[in-house]
Design brief:
This protein has helices at residues 10-17, 27-32, 52-55, 133-139; strands spanning 2-9, 33-36, 38-46, 57-71, 76-88, 92-102, 105-111, 123-132, 148-160, 164-170, 175-177, 193-198, 205-209, 213-218, 226-230, 248-259, 281-293, 296-308, 314-322. By secondary structure, the chain is mainly beta. The chain has a 19-stranded mixed β-sheet that branches.
């Protein structure tokens, strides 16, 4: 057995771990993750020379102070990282007192096998913080929306097993959405939202907003976003899509009821900065079961439109209104 203690740059430790055969499945994460800063580290290795494969015991412990980290995969950076991270071939990654700042806001980070959903997980992490909506939109290079404002409590779960998964959840308490029902909400109310990502063949975000909408969204660097939105209100997440969305924004769904008069007070083009960079929108077979005007039922509306601009001007659209009997 051996026991080594040293002080070195965190990037050296990350590079060394990525070469271990037991961490082969985590290599995409370790090579993507760039960590810099001085650390105090220990390295313990023990084995029986006659039975190396069965008795190999490895433990690496690194204590970080004011380190930085960045991930090209998530387009995310963290600073002021402090605390202890350890890895052993029996328990995977664990942490103690791990904290950081993201977008200038404090973040609590916990690593440990007790957080894993998959039995073979090498890394499982919980990240908790309160993040302004404006920072979340800027993270994916989306235009700011003046109808959405506030600070959202966020829980991010990341897991590395045979696949890599990231989930983001929030009840959106502290965020106001200035839209008519069912999408609008007050700052105090709760409206749970879950966003999932996995490293499948097409790496898009799978979004479920309880009672409001579901969507699949991909924001590739240097290319137009690809977003598919289903406005059908659901209380249970629909099955995951089998293929990724096409370029542009596509809206479908079945809305039980909408009073169009409630939307008149929203300023035209109230989409904030950067709206001119949005891709065109298309509406396909969007049905409003009870189409109302100031409480008076007009019938069922079926809407199709293509080449919609952010100001909701369409080059081509069709609609069919069936009056109630």
């Amino acid at each position: 057995s051996s026991d080594l203690k040293s002080g070195s740059d965190a990037s050296v430790i990350t590079a060394g771990l990525s070469q271990l055969p037991s961490l082969l499945v985590a290599q995409p994460v370790l090579t993507d993750l760039s960590i810099n800063g001085e650390t105090r580290s220990t390295f313990e290795l023990a084995f029986d020379l006659q039975r190396v494969a069965d008795t190999l015991a490895l433990e690496v412990v690194a204590t970080l102070a004011d380190a930085t980290a960045s991930s090209a995969l998530l387009n995310l950076s963290a600073a002021d990282i402090s605390g202890t991270i350890s890895f052993s071939n029996e328990r995977g990654f664990e942490s103690s007192g791990l904290m950081a700042t993201v977008w200038r806001h404090p973040v609590d980070i916990e690593l440990g096998p007790h957080l894993a959903a998959a039995p073979d997980a090498l890394l499982a992490a919980n990240i908790n913080s309160n993040i302004p909506v404006s920072d979340l939109l800027a993270w994916q290079s989306l235009p700011t929306l003046s109808v959405i404002d506030g600070v959202a409590p966020m829980t991010i779960k990341a897991e590395v097993a045979q696949t890599i998964s990231v989930s983001v959840s929030s009840d959106l308490a502290g965020v106001s959405v200035g839209l008519p029902a069912p999408w609008g909400k007050s700052t105090e109310s709760r409206a749970p939202i879950d966003i999932n990502w996995t490293n499948r063949e097409w790496a898009a975000w799978d979004i479920f907003w309880f009672g409001r909408l579901s969507a699949v969204a991909d924001f590739p660097s240097g290319r137009a976003p690809a977003v598919a939105i289903d406005l059908t209100p659901r209380t249970r997440r629909p099955p995951p899509p089998l293929v990724g969305p096409q370029s542009g924004v596509r809206v479908v769904g079945h809305i039980p009821s909408m009073d169009v008069a409630e939307w008149r007070d929203l300023p035209t083009g109230d989409f904030g900065d950067g709206a001119e960079e949005w891709p065109s929108l298309s509406v396909e077979n969007l049905t409003i079961e009870r189409f109302l005007w100031r409480g008076q039922e007009l019938g069922t509306l079926a809407l199709n439109a293509s080449a919609l601009s952010p100001a909701l001007r369409s080059e081509e659209h069709t609609s069919e209104l069936q009056s109630p009997d």
